[in-house]
Design a protein that fits this description.
- The chain has 389 residues and is α/β, with parallel strands linked by helices.
- It has 2 domains: 2-111 and 203-385, Divalent-metal-dependent TIM barrel enzymes (TIM Barrel); 114-194, no CATH class.
- The chain has 14 helices and 12 strands.
- The strands form 2 sheets. Strands 1-2-3-4-7-8-9-12 form an 8-stranded parallel barrel, surrounded by 5 helices. A 4-stranded antiparallel β-sheet has the order 5-6-11-10.
- Strand 7, helix 10 (251-260) and strand 8 (266-271) form a beta-alpha-beta unit.
- Helix 4 (78-94) runs parallel beside helix 9 and helix 12 (283-290) packs parallel to helix 13.
- The radius of gyration is 20 Å and the shape is globular.
- It starts with a strand and ends with a helix.
- Bound molecules: D-mannose.
- Residues 63-64, 101-103, 109-110, 183, 233, 298, 362 line the site of D-mannose.
- The site of D-mannose has 11 residues, from strand 4.
Length: 389
């Protein structure tokens, strides 16, 4: 693997020097200051790449070039935004950056209900509790028709749980959804969030899929011309939330995307943590079946404490994804291709050594250092044990 690390630019509490010292060769970054739909100018891309190069690494993966909501809905100015996207891809290619991660989740990027779930030994991690989110949806946001999204059992459970939560806990859930995580562009008020949800009325699962395939096929000529690989990030969590469709959640969705968008440049970011949010997903089988179009990986693990309740695992190798087997498939794919693939340790716990630093949620130094070290150990161990990999 090529050792990757997500860097949030100058606003990141973790410096390039620290990243380099962790053993990283490949930085994963973006022009965060550019809003969705804007062209990324060559000059700005070059300036960011130079900073990374001066620190002894290469900016090889973009995460993300966000897809404007109008493209997802195919409304308003979407044609212009697609043209702008193409220009950005060309500009990135001119600067030698040919791996682009993005997602096609409406309104919200990844979602959690608790950004500081305390583990027994005192470090914290991110938690997802579907019942708390259902409670937030029905009883805090009070979105008209929200009840229709849930079956009777789920509603009853969410209602019982919501009544038990203190005002501070309810706020914690609301803040986690509306303003907690890097990825979603702006912090939202409940009213803004409701308004954004409303704009998706009439866009069902099929429509969103067709819009995504249309977008990908429209940019394909640019991918063929430049050699850029688009790697979609799976939905996190991998199921519909807040009544919004989610269309890249499992093997069936990936298979349909590959079939409808046959260019080899339309690929996948294999994110074990996002896929793991559905216990039915088998990330090892996904790597085996779709590996030839995996161009970037996020490795981490989840631990479940209840049905639809999980937190990010204490160890990147242990949890509901069988990481050793997955890594074996990953190494086979690297060998087949004759090329190394960038992997970044995805998320990490917040440990004492990062106390007082303003790390982006999930993007601590210590937690990810451990994750990277574990992945490195696994790679060396597998190569040692299974000669020929
Ligand atoms: C969360 C990330 C996501 C990811 C985007 C890709 O930690 O994995 O925010 O960057 O979904 O577009």
């Amino acid at each position: 693997m090529k050792q990757g690390w997500r860097w949030y630019g100058d606003a990141d509490a973790i410096t390039l020097k620290e990243i380099r010292q962790a053993g990283v060769t490949d930085v994963v970054a973006a022009l965060y200051e550019r809003k969705p739909g804007e062209v990324w100018p060559v000059k700005e891309i070059k300036a960011r790449a130079k900073k990374v190069k001066d620190a002894g690494m290469v900016w090889s993966v973009v995460e993300s070039v966000p897809v404007h909501e109008e493209i997802k809905k195919r409304t308003g100015n979407y044609r212009q935004y697609i043209e702008n996207y193409k220009v950005t891809l060309r500009n990135l290619a001119k600067c030698g950056i040919k791996t682009v991660c993005y997602n096609f989740m409406p309104v919200l990027d990844w979602t959690r209900s608790n950004l500081a779930y305390a583990l027994p030994h005192g470090s914290t991690c991110l938690e997802y509790n579907a019942h708390e989110l259902a409670g937030f949806h029905m009883f805090y946001l009070k979105r008209p028709g929200a009840e229709k999204e849930y079956d009777a059992k789920t509603k009853a459970r969410a209602s019982r749980l919501w009544k038990k939560l203190s005002a501070a806990e309810k706020k914690r859930v609301a803040d986690s959804v509306l303003c907690g995580l890097p990825g979603t562009v702006d912090d939202l008020t409940p009213e803004e969030f409701l308004a954004q949800l409303k704009t998706y009325e009439g866009i069902d699962d099929r429509r969103l899929r067709e819009n995504m395939y249309a977008f990908l096929n429209e940019i394909t000529p640019v991918l063929e011309e430049t050699g850029v690989n688009m790697c979609i990030h799976p939905d996190d969590p991998p199921h519909p939330i807040f009544g919004l469709p989610r269309i890249l959640s499992n093997a069936k969705d990936i298979a349909e995307m590959y079939r409808r968008c046959p260019s080899k440049h339309i690929g996948l970011t294999l994110c074990t943590g996002s896929l793991g949010g559905d216990p039915q997903n088998d990330a090892v089988a996904i790597m085996k079946r779709f590996g030839s179009r995996v161009y970037f990986c996020h490795f981490r693990n989840l631990e479940y404490t209840d049905d639809k309740v999980f937190h990010e695992a204490q160890c990147h190798l242990c949890g509901n994804t069988d990481m050793p087997r997955l890594f074996e498939e990953f190494l086979k794919e690297e060998k087949r291709r004759g090329e190394k693939i960038v992997v970044r340790p995805d998320h990490g716990r917040l440990l004492e050594i990062d106390k007082g630093r303003k790390c982006y949620c999930g993007y601590s130094y210590g937690g990810r250092l451990i994750g990277l070290a574990e992945l490195r150990g696994l790679e060396i161990g597998l190569k040692y044990a299974r000669k020929g990999l």
